[in-house]
Amino acid sequence: MIEFRSVSKSYGNTHALVSLSCVIPRGATVGLIGPNGSGKTTALRLLTTLITPTSGDIIVDGLSVCADPSHVRQRIGYMPDTFGVYESMTATEYLDFYARCGTMAPAQRSAIIPLMLARVGLADAAQTAVMSLSRGMAQRLSLGRALLHNPDILVLDEPASGLDPRARIELRNLLHALHDEGKTIFISSHILSDLADLCTHMLILEHGKTIAYDTLANMTRFTHQQSISVALTHHAPTIIDVAATCGYSAHPTATDPLRYALSGSTLATDRATLLRALLAADIPVHTFAPQEAALEQAFLQMTSTDQQMQELPNA
Amino acid sequence: MRDINPVLLRELRGRLRTPRSYWLLCGALFLVSSISLLIYSAEYATMNGQPTFNGSSGHTVFLSLVITALVVVTAIAPIMAAGSISGERERQTFDLIVLTQLRPIDIVLGKTAATFAYCLLFVTALTPFMAITFLIGGVDVGELAMMYIVIMSTALLYTCIGVYWSTRTQTAITATGYALATILGMLLVLPVLVLVLPEVLPGWIADSTTTWRQLMLAIHPFATIIFTQDAIRTSTVWTNQYTIFGVTVAGPAMWVMSVAVSWFWSCVCSILSIRRLTPPTSKGAS
To answer: A78 and A158: one domain?
Structure first.
């Protein structure tokens, strides 16, 4: 379990993080979101003991990051947002160097490094120079480095930034597997769809202040809008009236007159009832696709105005 | 068996795998060989028809080699060491090293040893040139060993100064600037002080000008070599006579003091570097 206890960090008159308090259960995957300069990286660096809080403390499995940073470090694997390279080093040597720095025995090193390379999908690139790896491969190698000492907690700062779609999917699958192993994962990212897919908890920061911390389910439950894309097999303008009876407004999309965008507030009928109503009214529904934008909507609502923030629970 | 320091291993591999190191070594050796050739030629020209070199000629060539090697070490050691920690910051690998189980002392010793090893490689590569002076004559093995010790002690001190500044700055170029300024300050300001102080404070050091000068110049490797060259002909290798406040006492030879002072300040710089890398701890929640 990780507990942030009124953690603040200031640089002179600049308050990078203001009184962050939250309890993260073991095995949770926590997404940190917020605009640039909101304090995400500061929170992660505080947790990894790279910087010390101005006030407050973080307790990691009973250990204080202020009083016992070296033992906290043993429990944490950190993947920064940049991939620092050493010249003239192969992927195997890169991992071997960090394994040595982790005081791993030679036999253990020679056993674990090929396994780790295979795990992050770099078995074929074992002898490739680190400098010549693609961004996606470098990110996976960096994750492999963070996992070398089998930490209980993973701290990932913008792990998917700059990755192509395939690399993002591979990284996401890897993180799913790590979550299933029971690791507690912190992810800072601007790609909300990835976080919505990965995270069990969300922490929203803005200007160093905590806007919200809750489970993903609770957070998205209170979004004001839900969107559904409905494609028809042929024209049926009555969909607008049927949707209205369920509390949704329907508009044909500009690019496809047979596709309608339905949007409704949280007070609207649930999606299953809406679908049943459409079918009962003989609307020729070809596809019915709820749009998974709930987290984005929650984020936009919570970080837009103070008034809206106060309307939300757990803020 | 305990593993070799991983920072030392990585630094040596990283350094020697790039062509830059070979070019640097080649350039330094070319400089040394060119200067020794010039001295050799100058000595030959002054022989006035005598058929062979004598011991004095060999000694002159030897001294020129030692001073040139010292100049090269004075340039190489701080420049290479200054990029050690600040270079990690620039490559954005510093956080990753700090978060490993390595202690700050391991990081500092690894970085220091890597630069020192490169200097050792350079000084070792000079051995064939030094051997020529044996063939000419005028130099014995003890003198050669003594000069090697002074050069390597100087290399250690300048490396530690470079590493120290490297822990204090964010970029290698800034660290290099500070390190070179520190070393040049020591090399240039100290002789000025040695010359000026006896004039400003004549009463204080009235009868012992030479002794004070020697003591102050003990941290000046070039002065040490030149003074030692003179002293080695008139006194023993290990001791020297000093006059302090009118009392003549026997003390360690100037080169011994120079080596001891270099080691002392090397330790001080290393301790300060280690302290810079040690994470601050507090009692916790406030």
So the answer is: yes
**In chain A, what residues touch B92 (CB-CB under 8 Å)?**
80, 82-84
Residues 6+ apart with CB under 8 A from A20: A4, A6, A7, A8, A39, A43, A56, A205, A210
Tell if the CB–CB gap between A86 and B97 is shorter than 8 Å.
Answer: no
Please enumerate in sequence order all residues whose Cβ is within 8 A of that of B255, keeping only pairs 6 or more positions apart, or say none. B146, B149, B150, B224, B225, B228
Note whether ipTM > 0.85 here: no
Of residues B113 and A121, more confidently modeled: B113
Q: Does residue A258 share a domain with residue A144?
A: no
Q: Look at strands A29-33 and A201-206 and give their pairing.
A: parallel
Size of interface A-B (CB pairs under 8 A): 93
A261 lies in which domain range?
222-295
Helix, strand, coil share (%) of chain A residues, nearest 5: 40, 30, 35
Tell me whether residues B93 and A86 touch, CB distance under 8 A: yes
Distances (CA, A) of B86 to A196, B211, B273: 38, 40, 12
Distance from CA of A42 to the nearest CA of B (A): 14
Could you identify the residue written with the tokens 């620039």? B90
Domain boundaries, chain B: 6-188+264-277
Q: Which of A70, A83, A100 to mutate to test the interface with B (most CBs of B within 10 A)?
A: A100
A35: alpha, beta or left, given left = phi > 0 and alpha = psi -120 to 50?
beta
Mean pLDDT per 10-residue interval, chain A, length 315 residues:
90 88 91 87 92 92 89 91 81 93 88 92 90 86 91 90 80 89 90 80 88 80 70 90 87 84 71 88 89 65 52 41
> Does residue A114 share a domain with residue A56?
yes
In a shared domain, residues A110 and A173: yes
- B151-184, pLDDT tens digit by residue? 999 999 999 999 999 999 999 999 999 999 999 9
Average pLDDT of chain A, as a whole number = 84
Question: Which residue of A lies nearest to B18 if distances are taken between CA atoms?
Answer: A88
Is residue A313 a part of any domain in this protein?
no
- CATH code of the domain in which A267 resides: 3.30.70.100
Least confident range of A206-220, B44-58, B130-144, B173-187:
B44-58
What is the nearest CA distance from A91 to chain B, expressed in angstroms?
Answer: 13
A30 & A82 share domain: yes
Contact A41, A157 (CB under 8 A): yes
Residue B250: count other Cβ atoms within 10 Å of its Cβ: 11
What is the pairing mode between strands A225-232 and A259-265? antiparallel
Classify burial at A152, counting beta carbons within 10 Å of its beta carbon; exposed 0-12, middle 13-18, buried 19 or more: middle
Residue type, B23: W
Assigned token pair, B31 = 């400089």
Mean pLDDT for the stretch of residues B42-63: 72
Tell me the mean pLDDT in the region B199-227: 69
Q: Which helix (H) or strand (E) is A11 found in, with range?
A: strand A2-11
What stretch of H or E contains A230? strand A225-232
